[in-house]
Design brief:
binds zinc ion, three-stranded antiparallel sheet
Length: 63
């Protein structure tokens, strides 16, 4: 497990390595259970949406 996400409602979802790397040697992260958390693309970053309570978290990129 590389990352662990915990929503304020208590929904916990882990991110695992998918195994394959991309052409730059970077690992892909895979959501443990996409019925509990959706990873979406938003303006200038990624969005994490909890499937339990519907809360959306915005993850901003730094570059
Ligand atoms: Zn939640």
């Amino acid at each position: 497990m590389i990352l662990r996400f915990e929503c304020e409602c208590g929904n916990e979802v882990g991110f695992h390595l998918m195994g394959d790397r991309d052409e730059h040697g970077r690992y892909w992260l895979d959501v443990e259970d996409d019925d509990r958390l959706a990873v979406l693309s938003g303006e200038g970053g990624s969005l994490l949406k909890c499937a339990f309570c519907g809360t959306v978290y915005r993850l901003q990129t730094t570059d």
